[in-house]
Amino acid sequence: MVCPLPEYARARVPRPRFVKSIAPLVLVLAVCALTGTAAGHAMLQRTEPRVESRVKRSPDEVKLYFTEPLEPAYSSVRVVNDRGGQVDRGDSRVDRSNPVLLRVTLPALPPGTYRVRWRVLSIDADVTEGGFAFRVE
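User: That's the sequence. What structure does it adopt?
Assistant: Structure tokens below.
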């Protein structure tokens, strides 16, 4: 017959120091993995015109939608032709009523391939940049 021991008489198995020291690191890594892009950079979500699209007529403007609000003073977009010359009107701006929208207006563009280049600062101070092309037929 087994006689249960009182609490004070039971042997305690000490945890190795390694387990105690690594537990906070595991917790931090788990939190980082779960937050994903929520604490990350402003990522390009969609564009008008669409990335690598072919359009029949010149768009009036280029619109870039991001996953996070942008810092207007440090966010810009340019549209250049195949020789690298700027073709937009130079009025790149973050939309005041929708701070995830970056836009720039365009004159009537002749047929050709155009490259959109953007650089943004999100409100959490992360800089991202990128580019894409579209074609006017």
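DSSP finds one helix and eight strands in the chain.
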